Amino acid sequence: MKIDKDAPLAALNVSVQIGSARILDGVSGAFQRGETTGILGANGAGKTTLLRALAGAQPLAKGSVLLEGRPIEQYSKRERAQILGVMAQHTEGVAELTPRDIVSMGRFAHRSVFASMSRRDVEAVDAALEAAELSELQHRPSSELSGGERQRMFLAQIWAQEPSVVLLDEPTAHLDIKYQMETMQAARALADERGWTVAAALHDLNLAYRYCDRLMFLREGKALAFGRVDELRDPRLIQETYGVQARFVEADGVWQAALSV
Question: I want to staple 72 with a disulfide (CB 3.0 to 4.6 A). Which of 65, 105, 154, 172 is the partner?
């Protein structure tokens, strides 16, 4: 498969070795501007490791990651943060911080360590809180927010950061269905409305088929398939990835996978 090296983010034959275990094995793919890509696979398939590799946080045994056509290790941390935003799956230690505190942290990439917030910083934070529908909750402790509100808070931090490439690790994990959909709608807006490049590790097939433009399927550290959603509604691919039977059905223009063992 030929990879577009000029894409905003590209993995070229990426392999990761941890001890004696090969966690990723020759994974390649280009993540395009204005698109949302879902990264799918069973637990242990390598989804989080791939996101860490794409973020430049995971040493590679082989291959390379290109950010805006340049090897990611050539960027300083500040330069990287101005282009690349990451929302990790675990976000402990923020219970007493307010949404405004959390969202303001997104501006660190745009000012020196000891500099106070500029007017531009304040405007970016205000706009992010409004976009995430958190303006009225911005001074509450984040421990008082619902699960969906907390996820929107972390997405708002990325909005305020103003990168052009965004990586999300299981953004819908442990959320009720309503909040899962709200979170994916907000994540999708980063690509649709801002033209950013979004890649998200997901565990829910139907959310992925509904909200993503492209999908990558991983199994045991290898990419089984990478392409547009409408090209990958394949029961054989679901069987190979998850070991379950799938039947795709359409209702009101939305495709869903009915699964069985």
Answer: 65
Query: Regarding predicted confidence, which is higher, 254 or 201?
Result: 201
As given in the structure block, the two tokens for residue 245 are 């039977």
**What is the pTM for the complete model shown?**
0.92
